[in-house]
Specification:
Length: 192
């Protein structure tokens, strides 16, 4: 029964998450609240693992979520559920591509879908940013300096500079992910 439920939950996610992998995040947060299969912190971990492994982020997150919920069968059910709607839509669109491409209605629909997918991606980014950079417990007891995860903020600032300025901006993102993992491990062992 859990496999069918995973399939249906991720089928729904795949059907309505227009805009790629990041657009699945609001659906995952909603799914976490409704089902209790995983927490917001685990979603942040899913995102980190999904970004650092080969493949589409949304598919990687579905596989991770399915596996953590119900093992290998859960991973297969969630992944199939997520990708099946896209496969069906692509087959339908491919069959009628020329007619769709000339349609004023389709152009208007895509014009509306672009900002919607951007909004979903922004909505997904906010909880991840909060999970990574803020300490919610410190809002009540600590001072302003304790509200932020300063190591994470500093690392993000350094990465923002390195990925946009100078010769390092041409480096592949994998190098930044590996360097960030090494910094995290180093800080952990140093007790910082």
């Amino acid at each position: 029964m859990i496999y069918l439920r995973l399939f249906l939950e991720f089928f729904h996610t795949g059907l309505f998450s227009v805009g790629g992998g990041y657009a699945t995040l609001p659906f995952l947060y909603n799914m976490a609240d409704r089902t209790g299969w995983f927490t917001a912190a685990q979603i942040a971990d899913m995102l980190a693992v999904s970004e650092s492994t080969p493949g589409p982020i949304g598919v990687n997150m579905a596989t991770y979520a399915g596996y953590s919920t119900a093992g290998i069968g859960g991973a297969l059910a969630a992944t199939l559920g997520l990708v099946l709607p896209s496969m069906i839509v692509i087959l339908i669109v491919a069959a009628f591509l020329q007619r769709f491409r000339q349609s004023r209605w389709v152009d208007a629909a895509f014009y509306g879908l672009r900002p919607a997918s951007s909004g979903l991606i922004c909505a997904a980014a906010l909880p991840v940013i909060g999970e990574c950079f803020l300490r919610p417990a410190a809002w009540r007891s600590g001072g302003p300096a304790e509200l932020f995860e300063w190591k994470a903020v500093a690392l993000a600032a350094v990465l923002a500079v390195l990925t946009n300025i100078g010769p390092t901006k041409r480096l592949h993102p994998v190098w930044f992910l590996l360097a960030s993992a090494a910094v995290g491990i180093g800080l952990s062992f140093a007790g910082v």
